[in-house]
Amino acid sequence: MVTEGIFALWKKDAEQGDAEAQYNLGKCYDEGDGVAKDKKMAFEWYSKAAEQGNAEAQFHLGCFYVFEQDFAKDEKKAFEWWTKAAEQGHVIAQCNIGLNYFQGIGVEQNYEKAAEWWQKAVDQGSADAQVNLGTCYSKGVGVPKDEKKAVDLFLKAAEQGDEVAQAKLADCYEEGKGVAKDSIKAVEWLKKSAENGYVMSQTRLGTFYFFGDGVEQNYEKAVEWWLKAAEKEDPIAQLSLGIAYQEGNGVSQNYEKAFEFYKKSAEQGHPTAQYYLGSCYLNGKGVSQNSFLAVEWLSKAADQENASAQFNLGQCYASGNGITKDNDKAFELFQKSANGGYAEAQYFLGLLFEEVKDYQNAVGWFAKAAEQGHADAIKKLKEIFEALQ
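-> structure tokens emitted (389 positions)
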């Protein structure tokens, strides 16, 4: 807390041109420390200090041009001020302009320059830069691909407690990239990341427990981690919980709860959740049956190329359930679903072609479904081949 006396002293020095005092005054106005918060005054004093070469003021001025809602956004000016600060060794500014170069924000995209600036920040021990540069090495973007260097950088950041680095290190151990494949170590690092609150890791850790991948299978622990992620609105965790409640895995079977989680995920645009939600409305599971809402949600999922939704929506068009009957549209959706690899649609197309005595196409679709282990398709092929003998 800045006292009245200190604020008065900084104000006097700032008005006499002292750059450090000007920066301090700007920060007081920026944060409302020792004086009423005033973003315009903060900007004014940061500007004075920045023009005199104060690196912290230059960094904060750059932030004003990007993050302050009451000021006109100017990514080019932000880049210019961050560059001035970065050239003086300001580590966060170095990370920021690395990102500017990487994404082409405020400057022409240049992966090599992004890597150069992140290396400068890495040299100062920045965990964020270690993660970013490690990602460059893992993919060979802006630097020659080197998975071992990527692991080294991820490890340095992970040991600093960076949850994203811990997640990336888990990926490396899981996939054996840059390090010997080790599912146990993958889970260890994923746990650290999840415990640090990284939502993607919480969801993945739940999935590891669900399938027993690198850890003893435990549906209850899977649900526990998915709940943590779902509280942060993660759509994959919400979907996973919906399935868990529907099947009664790790929780008591509860169709109403399943519907609730499917809806949360579907409203965020997850196509599989939209399919499940449409199915709930179609079959009256966990909610009152409503064919019109079923078609609405199945359509959303089908538009995102969900093959299961395309097949079920095709059935709605074929029967006129929740929508005007349209056999041409139904057939189009069955084909899309079958081409997307949905075995039930492939089998169904086989039946349609068999009905019109197009046995060549019928056998072709039965065979595709049979390759996926579809029992009725296998039976149909057997019947057809026996009839030909």
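The chain has a mean pLDDT of 96.
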